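A reminder from the course coordinator: this example appears on the midterm review sheet, so study it carefully.

Given structure:
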């Protein structure tokens, strides 16, 4: 069935249904095993391999280079659909899509020619950016230096989401001169160790744990200056979270509707002989679905702003590009608190449509709240309304990039 027939509204383009049709059987297959993986804590190696085999990670690569040439709204709509199947998988691929977006944006023809064949062949990238402990905001402690054989990377990272499943790892580091840069290394290079020690209560299957790098070789062409990366990257990475939240909302909506339809037990003081005929219960189901619908619509609207930023990158006008990037970041900030609130409310509210049996671990309904709460804790939303208000009142542009650590 099309997105319209399912009641989620029109897709982002006239060609979207044809694009999505390639991946929906895989999404369905992923969704069928989502609860079992959650209950058994089985990492999604197989689902990610299915997506690699289908070259899902190349949807943004231009057609002439072996990809699908999808627009950003098309990409984010696909991520909503994938997240409805299993939000862990989307989160595990978030770094890859950010890396692929950077390659698509690269002004260097050599870099594009280096990476397009790899992406089109199904290879994926993980990330290694955040540092914990005594990490500073100003610079990475992870270093790229030169030894007698060439460039090497040394350091330790946490929140290295997706790296356990990846072919490559995109690492934030400092150069010998202290400048910020990124280095891409093979996941299987000597000196790379990735450990699944993520102990969060949500998104538990993303392997978002520790990676260490000990004299890991890196090619000269895979070291990129920070200022050369795509400028709307903060907005892009945040919008992946919001698309994932919208997908969680759809999954919660589908789960609660199915559970209500199948429920036989009811209460003496209920408003109907069965839950499926109880107006108050149906109202709850409708509110959950409406929240998911609204979240998805907001994500697609925000994705249009990112598409304008992408288009402006190649327009040859620095002022136009700067303005488009600022608006993309602003629209993402405006969307963040609203989408987060919609979905956090929905995944709590769904339990009001069911009895206490809905809290049984075997239903795994709690995964929706745990996953949504974890995602909504990224890139603290408490700052976003202030940033938006500062723009509205004072015209202050939002910050593009930020780092966490000790001042």
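Designed residues:
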């Amino acid at each position: 069935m099309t997105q319209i027939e399912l009641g989620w509204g029109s897709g982002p383009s006239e060609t979207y249904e044809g694009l999505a049709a390639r991946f929906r059987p895989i999404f369905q297959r992923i969704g069928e095993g989502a609860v079992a993986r959650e209950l058994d804590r089985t990492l999604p190696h197989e689902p990610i391999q299915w997506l690699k085999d289908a070259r899902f990670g190349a949807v943004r690569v231009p057609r002439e280079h072996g990809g699908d040439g999808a627009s950003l709204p098309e990409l984010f709509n696909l991520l909503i659909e994938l997240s409805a199947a299993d939000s862990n998988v989307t989160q595990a691929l978030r770094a890859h899509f950010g890396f692929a977006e950077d390659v698509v944006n690269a002004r260097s023809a050599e870099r594009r020619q280096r990476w397009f064949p790899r992406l089109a062949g199904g290879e994926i990238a993980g990330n290694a950016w955040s540092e914990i402990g005594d990490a500073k905001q100003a610079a990475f402690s992870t270093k790229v230096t030169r030894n007698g054989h060439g460039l090497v990377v040394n350091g330790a990272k946490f929140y290295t989401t997706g790296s356990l499943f990846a072919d490559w790892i995109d690492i934030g580091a400092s150069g010998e001169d202290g400048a910020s840069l990124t280095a891409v290394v093979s996941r299987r290079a000597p000196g790379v160790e990735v450990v699944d020690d993520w102990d969060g209560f949500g998104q538990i299957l993303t392997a978002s744990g520790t990676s260490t790098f000990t004299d890991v070789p890196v090619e000269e062409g895979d070291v990129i200056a920070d200022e050369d990366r795509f400028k709307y990257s903060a907005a892009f990475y945040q919008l992946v979270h919001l698309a994932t939240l919208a997908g969680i909302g759809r999954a919660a909506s589908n789960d609660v509707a199915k559970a209500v339809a199948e429920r036989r037990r009811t209460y003496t003081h209920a408003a109907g002989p069965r839950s499926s005929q109880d107006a108050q219960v149906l109202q709850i189901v409708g509110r959950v679905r409406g929240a998911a619908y609204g979240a998805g619509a907001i994500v697609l609207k925000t994705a249009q702003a990112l598409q304008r930023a992408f288009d402006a990158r190649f327009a040859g006008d620095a002022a136009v590009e700067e303005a488009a990037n600022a608006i993309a970041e602003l629209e993402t900030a405006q969307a963040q608190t609203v989408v987060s609130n919609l979905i956090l409310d929905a995944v709590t509210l769904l339990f009001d449509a069911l009895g206490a049996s809905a809290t049984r671990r075997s239903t795994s309904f709690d995964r929706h709240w745990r996953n949504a709460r974890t995602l909504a804790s990224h890139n603290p939303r408490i700052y976003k309304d202030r940033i938006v208000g500062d723009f509205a009142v004072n015209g202050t542009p939002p910050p593009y990039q930020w780092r966490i650590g000790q001042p």
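The mean pLDDT is 94. The radius of gyration is 22 Å.
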